[in-house]
Design brief:
Layout (H helix, E strand, L loop, with lengths): L10 H30 L1 H6 L6 H8 L3 H13 L4 E3 L4 E3 L2 H4 L11 H5 L1 H5 L3 H10 L11 H21 L6 H7 L2 E5 L5 H9 L4 E6 L2 H13 L5 E5 L11 E7 L8 H11 E12 L14 H18 L11 H10 L4 E5 L7 E7 L2
Parallel strand pairs: 3-4, 3-6, 4-5, 6-7
Antiparallel strand pairs: 1-2, 7-9, 8-9
Helix pairs in contact: 3-4, 9-11
Amino acid sequence: MTSEPGIRIDPEKAEAFAGQFLNAINGASVVALASLGKHAGLFDAMAGLPASTSQEIADAAKLNERYVREWLGGMVLGRVVEYDAPAKTYVLPPEHAAFLTTAGGPNNLSVLAQVFPYLGLIQDELVEAFRKGGGVPYSSFPDFQALQGEMTAVFFDTALVDGILPMAPGMIDKLKAGADVLDIGTGAGHAVNLMAAAFPNSRFVGYDFASEGVELGRREASAKNLGNVRFEKKDIAELNEPGRYDLITAFELVHDLAKPEKVLSGAYEALKPDGVFLVVDIQASSNLEENMDHPIGPAFFTFSVFHCMTVSLAQGGAGLGTVVGEQKVTQLLRDAGFSSVDVQHVEGDFFYAYYVARKA
């Protein structure tokens, strides 16, 4: 072990760190293989199989056996798949399948795993931003709306109507009777379409600056024959729709904003006097030291460096970052004019914090 001249190294601390980092490399390798397995349909195929050979698994997934066998090797050493050496068979335990397959719904961690190889596509551009400042533009992320839509869809499917909307007292009754609702930064529009389907007497609008998301939202609305929803490409920093909405929603948006003060002030003005601004954003502290034990803290900072912060900076924006934190988001809402900001958490949910903001 070598070090810079004059610098003393604690060999035990050094050895412990080397082991820690090797574990991180192995973990990252398992995540990369899990992303591949998710896209190739291997987890879903294996979930329905008893202990099987690599050929049987390849046949079930309609894939090439040699590739499947090598992938299985990594999954075995990563303790994801179990292996019977004498029989040369593999099995995905049901306890593991619950977190890796489509049937797992919001617990499907393989959906999250696929983000990491995707973000690596812009590494060279990101290094340039490190050197020169600025950021990596949104246009450098192909099909991002579809990827994010898949990541959030299962969450919205299970939690939006029955869990999140009721956090605003009286809102469900308003929506049933007929309310005007705006979703800003709507992405692929799935959340808006879910609400529109659940509350046919209400009217829904989704705004996003990306044409890709707007088109995805329109397609889904058309497929579901929803006549009470529309999507528009719009700069949400220029809302200019005073006193129009009973409810405005912002799902995983605030930390991405290039102009947070302007967007949040616009949302304040666009609400009716008794309207509600419902914000769902990343659950974290604005103070780094308070995130040391966050179960997914390093991943949040990775998302920030590789996407959320840099896309904002590419627009000349604030670059708040994924881990902007609850204290900062609360202050931004108050600065926008909201005198009442109720921050809520759901037991077992370490991903999101829920903000119910009112004018009075």
